[in-house]
Amino acid sequence: MPATVVVGVQWGDEGKGKIVDSAAESANMVVRFQGGNNAGHTLVVGGRKRVLHLVPSGILQSHATCIVGPGVVVDPRVFAEEIAAIEAEGLLPDPRRLLVSARAPLVMPYHCALDHLREARAGDGRIGTTGRGIGPAYEDLVGRRAIPYGLLGEPDAFRARLHGLLEEKNALIGHLGGDPLNADAIAEEYLALAPALLRHSADVTAETQDALEAGQEVLFEGAQGTLLDVLHGTVPFVTSSHTIAAAACTGLGIGPGRIDRVVGVTKAYTTRVGEGPFPTELEGEVGERLRSAGGEFGATTGRPRRCGWLDLVALRHASALNGCTELVVTKLDVLSGFESLQICTKYRLPDGSITRRFPPSGNLGDCEPLYEAVGGWMEDISDIREVSALPGAVHAFIERMESEVGVPVRTVSVGPEREATLRC
Ligand code: IMP
């Protein structure tokens, strides 16, 4: 299958990085197409844990070219740091194994300042962003005010653009109660990073199109999750990019007919970081148990994740939005030790009606989850390496997911290591 898109089908943190790392074993290219360093993709290989924010999760497979597409907003400070760490480990002997679009919009210090200031003033209306400037950076893309990555190679033009933009940004920052930023200081910091960063600049759209044309295997790595999509998610408690599979096309510049396979990654339960509705959230002891057993703390901000039961109404909706051709279920090991498990299959709406459909407004705050109990499994399954050796209750749980969502589960994961990913 030459072109595969891997996306999260919940609110992010489904374990996409780990799945992409495994799948990249046979891939020629791994491509990020949206989001920025609000993402935190955790990889555990050879007992060592790494968290990537901008570099694609194929970086540990030395044969794969890693691409950051024009749809990704790039904070050069974070990217330079991540590249230096990878180089120090000897993982990047050839800088051209990691390529970034010259068109990718830069995340600037004023984006981060505005993100923080707006959240601080929003009070109860805050979104709970990662504070990485992602929303304001995408606003500037759509507002046609973005500074592209390639402009780091033209210092005079970069400075002129920055001076022109900062006047308006500082007025806004001042209005929101912040201190003005200095254009010269920003230019100095960013241009000092330019030599290291420009070694990776490329026309990644053409490179990816050529690879697909030549029949190479390309993996598109989504960030965040479907329910955080800026248009289709639980608006306004969402991120600022399109997180659905179609964004692989727009975020890179390839036609929809190029995509052969869409893999939706879901946990065996649900988590969410930040504010916003979450019908199956468990606030008591069971939620705490999932959080500690699953190590549910944000990979980017360290915030405790909100935890709850699997929500198949949301999953069915997310699967349809992406056109998933298969599902991956991660963190099944975390559910060990529950005598019975709850799965949400319907919502009750405020007027008393019962529905299997996701509300068109995306306003889940009005939905009461209705559960079905399914049998749990008591044994530790984290050392199992063959799907056939998993307990019958795990098989029944997966079959219930498949029948409700109407998409086959082709891969399951029972632990953080590469070897704990099992093909069904
Ligand atoms: P932003 O993307 O930083 O603007 O944050 C907007 C919302 O998306 C917040 O609720 C964040 O917690 C959430 N979010 C952003 N990136 C991720 C991610 O990689 N995993 C999970 N939640 C995320």
If you had to describe this structure to a student in words, what would you say it looks like?
The strands form 4 sheets. The chain has a 10-stranded mixed sheet with strand order 7-6-5-2-8-1-9-13-17-18, sandwiched between helices. Strands 12, 14, 15 and 16 form a 4-stranded mixed sheet that branches. The protein has a two-stranded antiparallel ribbon with strand order 3-4. The mean pLDDT is about 95. About 30% of the residues lie in helices and about 20% in strands. It is built from 11 helices and 18 strands. The chain is of the alpha/beta class and about 425 residues long. It is globular. α2 (about 75-90) runs parallel beside α6, α3 (about 110-120) packs parallel to α5 (about 155-175) and α5 crosses α6 (about 185-200). β17 and β18 form a beta hairpin. The site of inosinic acid has 21 residues, from α4. Inosinic acid (IMP) binds near residues 130, 224, 228, 239 and 274.
